[in-house]
Design brief:
Oligomer: single chain
Strand order of the largest sheet: 1-2-3-4-6-5
Largest sheet: 6 strands, antiparallel
Shape: elongated
Number of domains: 3
Number of helices: 22
CATH superfamily of the largest domain: Transferase(Phosphotransferase) domain 1
Helix content: 40-55%
Structural class: alpha+beta
CATH class of the largest domain: Mainly Alpha
Number of strands: 11
Distance between the termini: 19 Å
Length: 537
């Protein structure tokens, strides 16, 4: 998504406190500038090392007339050593995890002045030699520094003017040493370029702050501020966001307008109406096992967005990939909760159509562990009705989805109803038990053909692991090609799962023990699903 597109996503602006914020850079730009400051500090340290080596070790070995060069004596060595020490300290500071970017950039202004002071002392150790039409190295420093390490225009101007004055300060130091110095007029004429460069240096600073302000505003959708990108996929992007008033974390899904595009204005209007209708329906879902939809809408750039609760946990695809197949009792525990979510949606006439491990999260919710949340109820369909998904012709959308697609969806021959979700949930259960998809294929098309024609291998035979017969029977019933041979509702599937005989059912004590052993107490931000195009986690 281009910066221009993101800029158009701003829906509202506020006054007052924003005025001060407009003079600062966003956090990510501050962090990038801090990293560049560390690199710059190392470069300057290296330049002073080269200066010391060339003047103290190399120059005595070659016959170069020194009268036309800037003199380099013991004072220059002292300046060089001090500059190297300060540069290395600043590099170490910017490398620390405790480094505060804004503090580092303010230190950078002092560092700029300190470097200019050192250059001024070296330049003016014999002031008469500089009055030969040369441009001071301080001009280069003043011009390049704000481009590499930006700050606010006001701070940049002040620091640049002070740095530009270091040549005259060097002349003053030479005068106090009793060295003959130029008159006032030649001095002002010779160092006027320093101050011209100081004024020009404000221009890149203004550009960087303006860009930062645009990025900051672009990351605001109504009451939500986009903090960081979680994932990107065929349909758009998923962002970590916060509510500007409530400081409530959220996941914002931005859907590319071209994905939902239509060839005519009438078609676009139809898509918008359907989007609003289906999002409103999804927002009425109240099951605790369904991800909460906070807000939805369309930006001026035509980008659709959903604001949903931000989850802390693992999607079931990541869970199995990281820790391997799950124990049967835990599989039953997770599937039962997913049935509660799907059951409510089905009662409202909604079909999810994209049930898969990446769209089911297991979380810690308060004091509860292994709490399931079903994602992506933003793009659903009514029974026997066309949905937004039916209008999307992007091949990217279907990548990966065929692994969990019911035969009637794959063939397009029969109407898709709630039983397609139960087939997909059976595929999820198969994945949790085996760590493998029901069918393996080298292309989506061949995968679809297998779902239509091939008979799945029971999980116990596929892996050689023991699986309770009742549970395996339930999974295989969900995978029936004929929808009439599957459980007919989420409640029917839930009842069958309840009848599965387990030696020791998975409970909160088991879940808590597992989480304490495998997941840190302070979880990292939730991982994006493998396909952000079809998930909001």
């Amino acid at each position: 998504m281009s910066q221009a597109e993101l800029l158009e996503t701003q829906l509202a602006s506020t006054a007052g406190p924003r005025a001060a914020a407009d003079e600062t850079l966003p956090d990510d730009l501050l962090r990038e500038a801090t990293q560049r400051l560390g690199i710059l500090a190392r470069v300057w340290a290296g330049l002073f090392v080269i200066g010391i080596v060339m003047n103290d070790l190399v120059a005595p070995l070659v016959n170069i007339p020194m009268r036309d060069l800037i003199p380099w004596g013991r004072p220059a060595d002292v300046v060089g050593v001090l500059s190297i020490a300060v540069s290395l300290w600043l590099w170490r500071y910017t490398s620390r995890l405790s480094c505060r970017p804004q503090v580092a950039l303010d230190l950078a202004l002092g560092y700029e002045v300190l470097l200019a002071f050192g250059v001024g002392i070296v330049n003016q150790w014999d002031p008469q030699r500089l009055l030969a039409g040369r441009l001071s190295w301080i001009c280069v420093l003043v011009l390049l520094f704000p481009m590499i390490v930006p700050n606010t225009p006001r701070k940049t101007l002040i620091a640049s003017l002070i740095a530009a004055s270091m040549d005259p300060v060097g002349v003053l130091v030479a005068h106090l040493r009793g060295v003959e110095t130029p008159g006032l007029i030649p001095l002002l004429w010779n160092y006027l370029p320093n101050y011209v460069c100081a004024v020009i240096a404000v221009i890149p600073s203004k550009i960087m702050v303006r860009m930062g302000r645009h990025v900051q505003r672009a990351r605001e959708l109504g009451s939500y501020h986009l903090v960081g990108l979680i994932g990107r996929g065929g349909m758009g992007e998923v962002w970590h966001a916060t509510h500007r008033m409530l400081a409530r974390p959220a996941a914002i899904k931005l859907i590319k307008p071209e994905i939902l595009g239509a060839p005519t204005d009438k078609g676009t209007a139809s898509i918008i109406r359907r989007f609003q209708r289906e999002a409103e329906a999804a927002s009425r879902l109240q099951s605790p096992h369904t991800i909460r939809l906070y807000d939805f809408g369309q930006t001026r750039a035509g980008i659709f967005y959903f604001a949903m609760e931000l989850l802390e946990g693992l999607d079931l695809e990541t869970l199995v990939r990281r820790f391997g197949p799950l124990a049967p009792d835990r599989v039953v525990y997770l599937l039962r909760q997913a049935c509660h979510s799907l059951g409510e949606a089905h009662d409202m006439g909604l079909v999810h159509r994209d049930v898969k491990p990446a769209n089911i999260y297991t979380c810690r919710m308060g004091r509860e562990y292994d709490f399931v949340k079903v994602l992506d109820f933003g793009l659903v369909k009514y029974d026997q009705d066309e949905s937004i998904l039916d209008t999307i012709k992007s091949a990217e959308l279907t990548t990966g989805t065929p692994a969990y697609m019911a035969p009637e969806m794959a063939s397009g021959a029969d109407p898709v109803d709630r039983r397609a979700d139960l087939y997909a949930l059976g595929c999820v259960g198969y994945w949790l038990l085996t760590g493998q998809m029901v069918f393996e294929a080298d292309s989506p098309l061949r995968m679809l053909i297998q779902h239509i024609q091939a008979i799945p291998v029971p999980p116990s035979i596929r892996t050689g692991r023991s699986v309770p017969l009742d549970l395996e029977r339930v999974i295989m019933r969900c995978l029936e090609k004929d929808p009439t041979r599957r459980p007919q509702s989420a409640d029917d599937l839930l009842a069958e799962l309840d009848r599965v005989s387990l030696p020791r059912p998975w409970d909160q004590a088991s879940a808590r023990a597992w989480w304490n052993e495998h997941i840190s107490e302070s979880p990292a931000p939730p991982e994006p699903a493998r396909e952000p195009a079809a998930s909001v986690g």
